[in-house]
Amino acid sequence: MQKGHIGVTTENIFPIIKKYLYSDHEIFLRELVSNAVDATQKLKTLSSVGEFKGEIGETPVRVILDEKKKTITISDRGVGMTAEEIDKYINQVAFSGANEFLEKYKKDANAIIGHFGLGFYSSFMVSKKVEIITKSFKEDSQAVKWSCDGSPEYTLEDAKKEDRGTDIVLYIDDENKQYATKAEIDNLLKKYCRFLPVEVVFGKETEWKDGKEVETGNDNVVNETKPLWTRTPSELKDEDYNKFYRDLYPMSEDPLFNIHLNVDYPFNLTGVLYFPKLKNNVEVQKNKIQLYCNQVYVTDSVEGIVPEFLTLLHGVLDSPDIPLNVSRSYLQSDGNVKKISSHITKKVADRLEEIYKKDRENFEAKWDDLKIFVEYGMLTEEKFFDRAKKFSLLKNTEGKCFTFDEYKDIIKGSQTDKNKQLIYLYTTDIQGQHSFIEAAKNKGYDVLVMDGQLDSHFINHLESKFENSSFVRVDGDVVDKLIQKEDEAKLDLTEPQKADLTTIFSSQVPNVDKANFIVTFEALSENDAPVMITQQEFMRRMKEMSAMGGGGMNFYGEMPDSYNLVVNGNHTLVKQVLDAEEKEVGEKVSSTRSKVESLEKKKAELEKAKEGKKEEEIPQADKDELEDLTKKITDLNAKKDEELSKFASKNKVVSQLIDLALLSNNMLKGEALTKFVKRSIDLI
């Protein structure tokens, strides 16, 4: 028997493994099974070049659990090792400069394992003792047994083993006894080993018999050795791709499309990516792409490998150019990873364009599901925007789809304003903004539907890309002002009439939660609505982006919604209100207004006399008179407003016009809606 010390330059490798790798200790099974697969494949390679002339025979990697003894054995029929090879590969651990490296990467276990080639030593994260019983494929080799109890000391002795290959026996320690259970090993094999290229066997298949689960005589093979992405696309059908998707994501609906990647230059990359139905929810869908290295599972956190927007895709990527023990810092700096990211972006764009060109009808039918994905890409990746503008679609209220260029050609004749600006009208709610959409259509305009999760940001982005163009929501103003064709029409109202109507209408607006209303006037035709509600485009858009978490937009999110209560000064019903006001309170209001005007004239004279004088030079009598005039003016205006408010509260037409405007914006609710219904019956 040979005894010795493992050749490490640091005092003791095992406390470091236990301490720094603890958070990732479940990867021990991946490492050991992967090593067994490598040993098996190496034997097949040696056989193919004539260096091994024996019978290969069956070569599954077997994982054997003894729950009583708390041991896990990983057994293969690969190349095996001689005593000299154990000394070289197991006993001499390249661990120079370890302490500095460990301090730097102590939170990233994968980086440590990958840097030092410690795959085998990950077994000590969960074991109090590890044994290797191995026999080389070389003729007349002596089987040997290596044993170590987690200290730098090991023993190496001859052993009895009939067959070539390696058995690694882990004696699981008490802290990690959960790994010595069938359920946990099932779980780890399914996670890390389900697509390994060599059969992995764990126990026997089971079936239900007489109300209980019983073992059959067949090996339970846990992996698919030739997964879909390793096969040639020409031999696969849509059903094959959909079946694989359901295997990966059992609870998901069938995907929209897929992309089969097969790249061998300037790097190696295979995989299948799927466009899922996103359900309009960006965040929930991330981390659905599984990254493999030569069919060994690495991670499902692929943000560093694919661009942000592509993390919405589902599926599998496999590249030997990304190391098995991948680290965040590696992903951020590696040139190959950047090339892969750029290439996948191009492939995705090319595939979407191909589907669009080949079967536009099908592409349009799936556009509502694809839209959020495409917009996310166009917002975050400049190169993707340049590619996607050929197939990205705009959809109107009729449900028709257009490319950017097609739509521009359709609307430039009717929707170019007097300043040569092209105006894209859009709605965020076809039902809620129906009356505004109809008004726009009656003018011969077309209206886009922009009701998606990212559309408020996307509209801003398109405005920065489209020359001499702007997007205006269809309820952002009265229809004649949405696209101004000529100078404004004349408003048939005097300033006193506008002032009176402002008080009349503003006094009767019901309380709407978190909303302010400003009365404005427009010179519209008699065919337009007498009163309508619009919302200023800029403020509304800022609030929408704030609600989505737009950077620096929180200020807007706290502000109440601001609406314009637009009064059509040329409408018969508005003139009726003015006539009724004149008849009922006109004399009182005019008298009060005359007194206010007289007092304001005196006030203006006193304020003019103050000009150029210091405060102490102004006589106290003048100051007192000015203060008295200000109070009288305020009181008289309040009296005038009270008269107008009393009139307005009794005039059912005023309330009816306001409520009709609120109703068309889906803003009339609760008690106000009940009053409206009752008043409507009374008026009828």
Automatic annotation (TrEMBL):
Residues 584-618 are annotated as: Disordered. InterPro entries: HATPase_C_sf, Heat_shock_protein_90_CS, Hsp90_fam, Hsp90_N, Ribosomal_Su5_D2-typ_SF. Keywords: ATP-binding, Chaperone, Nucleotide-binding. Coiled coil: none annotated. Gene3D superfamilies: 3.30.230.80, 3.40.50.11260, Histidine kinase-like ATPase, C-terminal domain (3.30.565.10). SUPFAM superfamilies: ATPase domain of HSP90 chaperone/DNA topoisomerase II/histidine kinase, Ribosomal protein S5 domain 2-like. Residues 594-618 have a biased composition (Basic and acidic residues). Belongs to the heat shock protein 90 family. This is Molecular chaperone HtpG. It comes from Carboxylicivirga linearis. The gene is htpG.
